[in-house]
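Action item from last week, closing it out:
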Amino acid sequence: MKAQYINKLMSSMLAFVDHKILLKGQAYENHGSNFYKTDTQLFSPTYETWAAPFKQMVCDQSITEATRFTGVSIDGGPEVGIGVSGIAFLQHHQGQIFFDNTTEVTESHTLSGNYSIKDFNTYLTSEAEEELLFNTKFELRPKANQTVTGLSPETQTYPAIFLKDNGGRNSPFAFGGLDLTNVSVRAIVLADSAFRLDAVCSIMRDLCYSTVPLLEPADLPYNALGGCTGEYNYTGLQATKSSANFFIDEVFISKRLENASEYKKINKSVYSALVDFEISDIRTPRS
C-alpha cells in the first residue's frame, strides 16, 4: 500500500523532532566500540548482521559536530563502508551493519567503529500510553562494565521519545475543495534523569508555531529494510520543501499521568512526560 498523508506527516514529525533535539540540545555522545555478530537474522540467509552495544546512531549530516556512522574497521584496518568487504547497508536506528552472504567476514574477525549515539532515541508507535509507561520493559544504555554484546532489533532502549497519532479531523476551509486538516500527535517521553526530561520538554515546547516540511518517502535515503543508502541532511532537505509544510499550532506538556493510580508501577529510574502537538494543514484531500 502507498504511504498516505498521515504516514507522511508522522514520519515528518519524527524527523523534525529528532533533528531539533540533536541540534538545539546537542543531545548525542561521540563513542566507539566493537560490533558483534547477532543471532537474530531478520533477513537470513540474504544478510549477516553485526550490531553495536548501543542504538540509535546519528546519521544527519547537518549535526556537524556528531560523528556519523559510515562504516567499520576490520581487524584494525582502515574504515570501510557500503559496497566494500561485502557491506550491503547500515542501519543507524538499530546500530547495525549488514553484510551480504558472500562476505568473508566471520566471527573470528574484530569489527570496530566510531559513531555518535543519541541521548534520546525516537520511535513511531501505535501502543497505548499505559502499555509504554507501565507494561513495557526498556533497557537503559549501558553505563557500567558488563559483558558487552550487540543489541538485537527487538531491544528497545531509553531515554526515548515515542510519537503516536492521536487522531484528527478535516473541516471545510474554502471553496474549491480546500479543507483544514487538524491532527493530534502525542509524544511519550521516557528519560533517565529529571534534568534530561526538563531539557527535552523545553525543546519540544519551543517547537510551537513551527512550520514542518512534509517529507515524501523518496526524500529519505532509506531502503525497504530501513538501511541508509545515501547521504541524509535534514537542513538541506528542509530547504527544498518550502511549498509542502504543515504547522504546529499548540504544544501541551503534562507530567501528571492521567492514570495516576498506576504511577507506582513505573520504574523509579524512569522520568516521564506527555507532550501533545496540535497540528494544522490546509490541503485538498479529495483531489
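Closing note: The chain is about 15% helix and 35% strand.
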